[in-house]
Amino acid sequence: MAETTQLTRHIDSYIHSSSTSTHQVSSLDAIGLLIKTNALTLEALVRELDVYLTSTDTVIRSRGILLLAEVLTRINSISLDSKTIHSLVGFFKERLADWKAVRGALVGCLELIRRKSDVGMVTGSDAKAIAQYFIQHLHFQSLGLYDRKLCFELLDCLLEHHADSVASLEEDLIFGFCAAIDAERDPECLMPAFHIVESLARLYPDPSGLFASFARDVFDLLEPYFPIQFTHTTSGDAHVHRDDLSRTLMNAFSSTPLFEPFVIPLLLQKLSSSLHSAKIDSLQYLRVCSSKYGAERIAKYVGAIWSSLKDTINTYLMEPNFSFTLAPTDGIDFPKNEVVIEALSLLQQLIVQNSSQLVSLIIDDKDVNFIINSIASYEMYDAVSVQEKKKLHVIGRILYIFAKTSIPSCNAVFQSLLLRMMDSLGFSVSNIDGLKNAGILASQSVNFGFLYLCIELLAGCRELVILSEEKPGTCFTILHSSSDFLFNSFCSVLAVSADRFPPDPDIYIGVKGLQILAMFNLDVFPIPKSTFENILKKFMSIIIEDFNKTILWNSTLKSLFHIGSLFQNFSESEKAMSYRSFVLDKTMELLSLDDISLPFSLKLEVLSDIGMTSMKNMLKILQGLEGAIFANLSEVHRNLTSYDTAVQLLECYSCKLLPWILENGGAEEFILQFSVDIWNQAGNCMDFNSPFEEKGLLDATMKAMKFSVGCCSEESQNVIILKSYSILSSRTNFQLNDVQRLPLTFEKYDISLRDEGILLLFASVIIALRPKTHVPNIRGILHLFIITLLKGVVPVAQALGSMVNKLISKSNGAEKSDELTLEEALHIIFNTKICFSSDNMLQICDGSINRNEIVLTDVCLGMTNDRLLQTNAVCGLSWIGKGLLLRGHEKIKDITKILTECLISDRNSSLPLIEGLDENNEEHKGDHLARKCAADAFHVLMSDAEDCLNRKFHATMRPLYKQRFFSSMMPIFLQLISRSDSSSSRYLLLRAFARVMSVTPLIVILNDAKELISVLLDCLSMLTEDIQDKDILYGLLLVLSGMLTEKNGQEAVIENAHIIINCLIKLVDYSHKTLVRESCIQCLVALSKLPHVRIYPLRTQVLEAISKCLDDTKRSVRNEAVKCRQAWASIASSRSLRF
Amino acid sequence: MVSGLINENPVIYERKQRQQRSTQSLPADEYTVEPIDQQEIFDHIRDIKDPEHPYSLEELKVITEEAVEVDDQKSYVRVTFTPTVEHCSMATIIGLCLRVKLLRSLPPRYKVDIRVAPGSHATEAAVNKQLNDKERVAAALENPNLVDMVDECLAPSFD
Predict the structure, then answer these.
(1) Which of A83, A389, A492, B117 could pair covalently with B82 via S-S, beta carbons 3.0-4.6 A apart?
(2) What is the CATH topology of the domain spanning A973-1134?
(3) Nearest CA distance, A321 vs chain B (angstrom)
(4) What ranges do the domains of chain A cover?
(5) Does the pLDDT value for residue B112 go beyond 70?
(6) Which of A1072, A1115, A1135 sits opposite B147 (nearest CB)?
(7) Which of A1111, A1122, A1125 lies at the smallest CB-CB distance from B109?
(8) Fold match between A4-227 and A973-1134?
(9) Is A329 left (phi over 0), alpha (psi -120 to 50) or beta?
(10) What is the ipTM score, two decimals?
(11) Residue A529 to residues A130, A536, A751, A822: CA-CA distances in angstroms?
(12) Separation between Cα atoms, residue A779 and residue A687, nearest integer Å
């Protein structure tokens, strides 16, 4: 009983449409659920609804019927017996005539038709009855959009699911459809409507049957829709895309060959339309229709299509790119154009389908014949007129498609056109054998046009060979016999002499031709091995000799790269062998040969490009490179050139080859060996002078070492670190094992240059290690690093930072007795006592009693009197801090505390002026420098480092660490700045905060824009004083301009508009950096968009300042000034000439 | 008075490719002076719209880069423009636009001289005199209709 009342409530809430739509939907769902759970039968529901279904009030009746229909959609998975379905069909069918309640009837019918056979389907006769009723009683045009859409869907479903039973309606059905689609314009209705055409065509396929007699009428209705074009952009969620609708119409067009007499003429006509989309659509439709209609029906149109295709390509084909890229291209490279692509694919379709017809068309074509007959006159690219050049390009593209599409068409064009061209150039086919031995052609017989077309033909033919496994017979024979001739002609284009310097396109043609000849595939290829080898020889001779002709040289190198990449998978083939012996080995020889004039940087370019062709080649190149590096390293002291050479080789290794290896994988063994060898070299240099004393070379070696180690796996890294540790401990004066026990005297750490080199190299290994790699004697190393850090060796500080970044924390549960945890390491770093026995002597010891003993942080705070020491300590601390910050460790708070204490400790005010004035000045300078270093330490903390602590070197990085750090530091800084009373500490605090702000993601800054803006402006005005701060200044300006342009920041900006403008006006003539002035003016432009009430009072001031910028020394600033002036001048309409 | 356009069917020329200047990014270049030159002046005025057609003066070849003479040392610039038809009554408006645009874009030290190309206009001398008469230019800019027209023509050149 309770269910009945519940049901009545649901029904009421739906029918009396007073409730909200979500409410109504939930009522429907509830009723559906009742039926699904068998709490309610459909009969009971109908009985309950009885009053509504038969009510005379049209609103209530229509709601009632709609409710029943909607309930049906919700129980489409519930099986219904055939009797129920039959009576439902009967009911809804009758209601179709009731136009006031038609929505419900349509939804109901549609739902019934859609039912699957396993849950009870509508019978054929019922379906037919619905269709009949539907056609007779519905007046489509008078219905609303959604109802019309339902109508089309209903018809579509009927044809889809009950085609056989509906088919007997014959004429009525087609008439009904025609009446429905007439004047329909809504894309949503057209989608199913077009689909109905397809179904109708499928239903009556007989060429002389029913549909044939109506084809004209149906097509007349469809024709106006082509090409699909939306005049209004659709809004709303259920919109149909133009492309989808166009595709559906295309399917309707191509649905039956019966449309052919109407469709093709229409498409041909529209092809000449000026509307871009019409052209593309016509080409697409033509392609699909011709494949659907079949060769026979299309045959009569081929001529017409051919000529309009030629026209279209002629109009839309752009100038080709005569340049080589590393990305492979076949044939000549043209800029992508949709129309051309579609046109060419239509052509391809036709060639496949109506092959013989097309072949005879092209052979007899007057444009083609014109080009071929006058080919002799196209000697050089520049000599061809623009019109004919265009024709040449079009014919080239068409020939390319012919050659690539099918074997018969390929043979045909080779046989007739290529030979004819050669004839018209005066090389008859019979002469070819003679030409073979004729050697290089005289330069006047070089012919651009001929070679251009040859390339397109060859490229097409090559693709055909790749795609189809068969060998095309005739064209191979021709190619085989003329390959030497072609080789010689391409070479002769490249022949450069004093009186003849070919323009770029000719060079391109020559190189490209040789490349395509060489790239003919492997063993099935018709080019004899000797020709292939000749090509490689030619290329290598260009590489070695013609390096001063940049374009030729670069193209040749790229070609060699392409050829080499081709053999990547066929390393055992005959041609790959020749490539190795002619190119790879020659390249290796380049390294050792000093007598050739090819500049060394170009040699390296060749080396890396050839190496990148395949892993195998790369390994070989790497070996050669390694040999050369070590040979040069040992020569460094005797020979200045080998110093440069070694640096360049190392750079090439770390910047070009290593990234490639990293991407392609697999050369780790080599990298490992290489790193170990460098260490051997470093160790061996003990007895004589080390090559690493030289700064540039040391940097290059460190870089190579860092990148190599970074690429390696943990196992290899373990090997390298052991090796390097053994060198470090045995070959230097550092006493790693004693360092923990003995209080060491300063003398022992007076590092020799050689020791420093090895230490730096070791630090670069540490920087690049993975977190899990085991470091031997880590305590000793930590001590060593702390001491050397105080000597000002920055990479050591970076290595220390990397170590604390990667060590396993105790909290992570890795309790291995021998592994040092992060906490222990931090204890060592921050609690190891450094002893100062006298003036500058420093010692390190644990727990020894010394009145001068202090720890690292004390040094940072300036407890010693040595300011340089303090600076070094602060710098070191910043890198350690960075390591901790990245992993989100708590200790960073202590570090920033020390740094900020450094900033605010103004010693000068407390130091009594007892010593001499000069001395005090010196002292002052040093102190300031150390504190400035502390301010800049914040830059180290926040910015992304290139040299260490990044993804490449496996740093542990916590997401959003910058944001976190900024939010924790901001209140501290704001408070300190507002409290600071001495000018120097205020300067340093602002400077430090400026450093932090300029690298923080803008989005965080925007959140606190209000509080930050005044500090930001303080920073800006303060930083103008020192030239060296110009980069920080620029960074801050970028932050400000971010605030001005983002919505979030604008509120804060509006309030402070006048102080911002005043600050910016002072900056517009900042003479030390153009970018500062430029972005300052841009900020002013952005400010002019603010509400006029706020900014109007400042207008005159801004305009005065800007008019000075019109006379700036830099053009970019002047241009910005003109814009800014206009923006500010037009705030108020003014008749004045100046403003 | 004929109410139609003065030149109904002007010839449209192609725009010249914007030359990319080699940008100065070297730190050593920070203090070197880049003088105002022909191309810079031309860039200021090339996009001014013709008063009666939706084309720029450059597209109509009313002005060309060669027609700009500039001497940065002497703070002097002269622009010679060629009206599309000899009897063009828009010549004065075009001249006015050029003058206003240059006054707004160049530093105050500059003297701007605008003139019609010799032989290109029926009342050449009168137009030249009108365009270079300070008083008359100032007076013209007091006229709200003229100022609106000038502003409309200048709008695209500020983008």
Answers:
(1) B117
(2) Leucine-rich Repeat Variant (1.25.10)
(3) 19
(4) 4-227, 243-293, 296-431+443-527, 706-808+821-838+852-905+925-958, 973-1134
(5) yes
(6) A1135
(7) A1111
(8) yes
(9) beta
(10) 0.92
(11) 75, 11, 62, 64
(12) 29
